[in-house]
Write a structure and sequence with these properties.
Radius of gyration: 24 Å
CATH topology of the largest domain: Alpha-D-Glucose-1,6-Bisphosphate, Chain A, domain 4
Number of domains: 2
Number of strands: 13
Order of helices and strands: HEEHEHHEEEEEEEHHHEEHHHEH
CATH class of the largest domain: Alpha Beta
Number of helices: 11
Shape: globular
CATH architecture of the largest domain: 2-Layer Sandwich
Distance between the termini: 23 Å
Strand content: 15-25%
Helix content: 25-40%
């Protein structure tokens, strides 16, 4: 079966039975719980460090550091000590790709392509912390639909050429807006110079998001990516089938720091013939994208505020009405009158500078996109936002200017309530397209420097 668009499945419908759906949910839960046990061990007294005898430092982004397992430790600790050694350091991640479920495949081989030997597959370990709240991180990760996959890829700076949601087993709801379990297919397109000699990779995997609790009762967010195979998803002639298994855990750090602890382990088998150093480089590029989730969350909240403004305007309630959706995340009430007064001023609301006479004709373009207050070029905050009129439609991008107050409001908006509002608005009419249809808008054309990263962390 050939896909007729970039966002349609190239496979026959999966037709997941209730038994298989239950098994997949149990599989996802079991993998998350196994990683949670490793994380809780890591949090124990005197253990919160990375053993550099086992892990080699590869890259750092902000306060997030990525390590790769050292090859010699893949064979270490034979016999009765081997399992304890591998489990303690999370090296059994490579064994996850070899687990076979007869329910998910008609053959004994779970995967269409032959996985590399476990000892040759590096495990990537990412630790550190990122600024923000746990809800911000999970909201930045969340992408259970084609539309949200495309927007997330745009905001974290990767390019997805072909992808499809093959099945939705658990969809976010207003009651549980962060819980999702989907089966996806994505294509990795090689760089143009490599296409004549190297086949593109594709991946079929389950993706799960949500929150759980540690044994001590602490709330932890999770993000799982794990390759699966079905009889309906055979290897395609034009691709090499890759496999991966990865899980990220996120916990709000105590105190006023406003930071989230990051604990992630994953392994990647690109399929075919690939040298281990190249696999390490590609896997690190894919999995270190974690550090961008907070910025993704902030841009999504800004875009939501723009849509909410358009929706409130269409309903006649006005931006930041005391009963509207905007106020539900803490941006209404007393803000309304303050914004109304600021919108009438022709002085910069931050530094008080007045616009030059030549700029008065373009005053509208120099106002905050949310409160319409004038902001000078020095004080304004500029952000590129994206909008999808439909899941498969053209992605619209435009640069918007914001005053520091509105931008700060967006940063601190309650991500949980924003996600709940988005769930509630799914069945309603779409708003916000007109904000992006102007001379400043453009179709997205951003490309990542790593093609493998472009199609995995979606």
């Amino acid at each position: 079966m050939a896909a007729t668009s970039r966002y349609e499945s190239p496979f026959a419908p999966l037709q997941i039975s209730s038994e298989d759906a239950s098994y997949i949910e149990q599989l996802a839960l079991a993998i998350v719980q196994d990683h949670l046990a490793q994380y809780e061990w890591y949090l124990g007294p005197g253990r919160r460090h990375v053993d550099e005898r086992v892990w080699k430092f590869r890259r750092q982004r902000g306060d997030v550091r990525a390590y790769a397992s050292r090859r010699r430790h893949a064979h270490k600790a034979r016999g009765r000590h081997r399992h304890r050694h591998r489990r303690r350091h999370g090296l059994e991640m490579t064994d996850a790709l070899a687990v076979v479920s007869p329910r998910l495949s008609a053959s004994a081989d779970r995967f269409a392509s032959t996985p590399a030997p476990a000892a040759d597959l590096p495990v990537i370990h990412v630790v550190g912390s990122i600024e923000g709240t746990l809800d911000d991180v999970i909201y930045g990760i969340l992408n259970p639909t084609i539309g949200s996959m495309r927007l997330k890829a745009e905001y974290i700076g990767v390019t997805l050429r072909h992808m499809a949601v093959l099945e939705t087993l658990v969809a976010p709801t207003a009651e549980h807006p962060f819980e999702s379990l989907t089966i996806k297919w994505v294509e990795n397109v090689q760089k143009a110079v490599l296409r004549p000699a190297v086949n593109s990779r594709d991946f079929v995997y389950i993706e799960a998001t949500g929150t759980t609790l540690t044994a001590a009762g602490e709330r932890v967010g999770f993000h799982l990516l794990h390759s699966v195979h079905f009889p309906q998803t055979p290897a395609l002639a034009s691709y090499v089938r890759g496999n991966m298994s990865a899980c990220g855990l996120y916990r709000q750090l105590p105190g006023p720091s406003g930071r989230v602890d990051v604990y992630f382990k994953g392994t990647l088998d690109p399929g075919g013939v690939a040298a281990r150093p190249l696999v390490v480089i590609a896997a690190v590029d894919v999995f270190i994208q974690i550090w961008r989730y907070i910025e993704c969350s902030r841009l999504k909240k800004l875009a939501w505020l723009m849509r909410a403004k358009a929706r409130d305007g269409a309903s006649g309630s006005g931006y930041a009405s005391s009963s509207g959706s905007v106020s539900s995340v803490g941006l209404g009430g007393s803000h309304a009158e303050q914004r109304k007064r600021r919108s009438l001023s022709t002085q910069c609301v931050v530094c008080g500078k007045s616009p030059a006479l030549a700029l008065l004709t373009e005053l509208r373009r120099r106002r905050c996109s949310l409160c319409f207050a004038y902001i000078c070029s020095t004080c304004r905050v500029k952000k590129w936002l994206s909008h999808l009129p439909s899941a498969e439609g053209r992605l619209l991008r435009r640069e918007f200017a914001f005053c520091p107050t509105c931008f700060r409001d967006a940063v601190h908006a309650d991500a949980l309530r924003v996600a709940q509002d988005e769930c509630a608005a799914l069945d309603g009419p779409a708003f916000g397209s007109e904000l992006f249809l102007c001379s400043d808008s453009s179709e997205s054309s951003r490309f990542s420097t790593n093609s493998l990263a472009d199609s995995l962390f979606s």
